[in-house]
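Much of what follows relies on a compact textual record of a protein's fold. An example makes this concrete, so a full record is given next.
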Amino acid sequence: MSFLTFLATTFTPYYYRVPAISLILITAFDSHLANTIMISESKRFYVVDALRGFAIISIMLLHNIEHFDFYYVPENIPQWMAAIDQGIWDTMFFLFGGKSYAMFALLFGLTFYIQMHNQEKRGEDFRPRFAWRMFLLLIFGIINSAFFQGDILSIYAVLGVLLIPVARLNDKAVFVIALILFLQPYEMVRLFMAIQNPDMQLSDPTSWAYFGKMGEYAGGESLLATIKGNLTNGKVAVLLWNWENGRYFHILALFMFGMLAGRRKLFAWNSENKRFWIKALIISAVAFIPLFAIQSSTGSLIESEAIRRSFTIIQSSWTNLCFMVILLSGFVVLFHSKRMQKALNIFTPIGKMSLSNYVFQSIVGATIYYGFGFGLYQHANTTPAFLIGLVLAVITWFGCNWWAGQYKRGPLETIWHKATWFNSEKRHH
């Protein structure tokens, strides 16, 4: 619940009528936060690009130690190496598991607001164009899914369309909708039913059966068989898994929170927002401690499997999003410090090409680990896979820096942009 407090405080002017939240708002945030100083919106928020780049690199590292969804532990690993593997695995998932995708989703909603607002200033309605843009993103997602079944682009494309009906609602209405989605309503109902009947028997998640079939094609030497398997069995597995873990509700909620953050100009750097991000960092850090403690002890505290499963999905998603706010707010504050800006700015060119980099890592990763390529899933345990991820991150950085010096947008970003405005009389930016 502490993370909900943070979300509520983000939009102070609209929720003072709710008693429980108003007390927190009065004690936690300055009342004048709503009067954030406006700056020129034509100026690019480099911190947003850097955040995207940071998310892309962290996703790349996670995907590598997972062998791009092809989970396989090589045999005869020395005990000392297994201990290192476990340490890297636990650390990476503690830092980025369930957090990087959340950050990406928040920034997706922010970008939607920026594009929507820019067109409104020209007197145009961006919503029809955005629907077409999401269709194009779906195509990119399907192409990406052919190599990596865990693709998130196609999910973003479908859920992104749901931003259209709420795009012109006032902030309070959008916040309420997002908050309801954030609370995991479906899983809340399941939890209530489980409490009423704690002894009810649960079957294994449906997605497990589909994931179990992955070895039939990902480990084989046929690229065509892998593509077919990823687009059929693999896609069903991932869609089911996201549903079973409440991801759809949270992705859409984060889209909306990102849109609201854009409306409040929270990524524009000024004294007001500096105080906001520092307070967000402190509150989320304090809130994370008890949330993580509960998450770590859920198995011993709750005996009923029916209750434990739904409670874990709800509680873990809240905990992950709380830690995501720690990463996000900490990054924003450090990015604007003189000592750290140069270091963190290395992520900016990567973030400007986030679409290209996401697809690039899927194609390269599948080639490295799957059977049709080098088949390293059989040999690369967590430690070497993590080192491969680091090498790919460095290559990505060099490539993006070179490309940025030659072109305005990344290769797939250029295609996406031109296709978005293909029949427009004006060229939009």
